[in-house]
Amino acid sequence: MRVFMGMVWILIPLMLISGCGQKEELERQAFVVALGLDKGEKDHMIEVTFQIANPQVNTSQLAEAQNEPPSDIVTVTAPDILSAKELVHTSHSRRVRFSHLKTIIIGEELARSEVFSNIIESAIVDPEVRRESMMIVSKEKASEFIHKNKPIMETRPHKYYEFMQKIWKQTGLVPPSNLNTLFQRIQGELFLVIYATAEREEVGEHQNEDTYLAGQVPQKAGDPVQMIGSAVLRNRKMIGTLTGEETRIAMLLREEPVFDAIITSFPDPVKEGSRISVRLIETSPTRVKVDTKQEPAKVNVQVPVVLQIHSNPANVSYTTNQHNQNLLKKSIKKRLEERSARLVEKMQNEFKGEAFVWYVPARKQFWTVKQYEDYNWEKKFQQADVDINYEVKIENFGEQIKPPSNKD
Question: Does the keyword Lipoprotein apply (predicted)?
C-alpha cells in the first residue's frame, strides 16, 4: 500500500506538468485580426495580407507605444493561406496566430476567379481559423482596402469590425456572411457576402438612402471605407452584386429574421416628390410555402411587417385622416411587393438561383436527399411561380397628435 501511495504522489506532479510541452509565452505571439486575399500575378498563386494587432496600443504601455501604428500589415505571395502564414515568419519575430481572426477580406478579382473556392476551402484546415469569421468582398484589392481603412474613432482594427458587425444588424444594408454559412451552400444556392470598398464612384444624382452600392454613397470627409450591398456568390464564385435595398429585401424574404428593425423611407402618396421615413419591424418570421408537386413550382411568401412613422416632411395629415392612412398603407405595400417581385425576377433570369434560403422548405417536400437532388431545385426555381404578399400594419404615425397645417 505504501508503495502504491508513493507512486501516486510521483505521478500527480507529472500529470500536472505534462500539458506544458506546447506552452508559448503570450509576448512571443502575434495575432492576426484581419486577413486579406488577392489573386497573384501568376496562376494558382495568391497574395495574402496579414493585419497583425500591436498589443501595446491602447494598453498600460501606451506611453511607450504612442508613436507606433495600431497594427502591422504584411503581404506575401504563396500558393495558399497556410504557406503564406509560414512565409510571414521570415520577417516577423513573433509566432503568427489565427486564433483571434474574425474578418476575412477577399478582393473582387479573386472572388470572381475559379481558384477562390479551393483557396477558401484549404483555409479551414488550420484549426485556428474560426468558422464564424466574417467575410467581406472588396471592390479593389484586399491589400489596398486594409491599408486605406484607418477609422479615426477606432485605433484597434478588430474593434472596428466588431462594432460594424453590430451596426449591420440594425441597418440591414449588408447580409450576415461567415465561413460557416458559405460551406453550407453546396447545391448551387446563392450566397450573399458583405460588399465594401475604399474607393469613391460618382453616380450622378442622389438616390434613395438604400439604393447604393459600396462607394456610391454621397459622403464627404471621414473614413473612405463604405460597406453597403452584397456580392453574390454561386458555387463559391462571385457572379454579381446587389444594392443595399435589394439586400434588405432578400433578408425580409427569408424565413429566419435577420434584423429586428431598420430605418427606411417610402414615397409620400399624397405629396409628390416627398418621402416619409419609417421604422420597419419584423414582428414575426416570414412564412414560405413551396409546392413542388405543381409544374412550374409554386412559392407563396407572406411577409408580416409593422411600421412606425418617424418623419413627415410634407406635413400631410396622416394622424387624423383615415383616407390618407389607407393611401399610405397601400402605397407602401405595393412598393414592397413590386421591389420584391423585381428582385425575384433578377434572381431567376440573371443569377439563375435564389438567395432567400427557400431551398430549405423545398427540401422538406422530399423523403430522401436523392429525391431532392434529382428534382434540381436550382433549375426549377428559375421557372417557379412566386407570389409575395406583405402584411403591412402601421403601428403609429409619430408623436404628434395633429401635424401642423401646410399653407403652401
Answer: yes
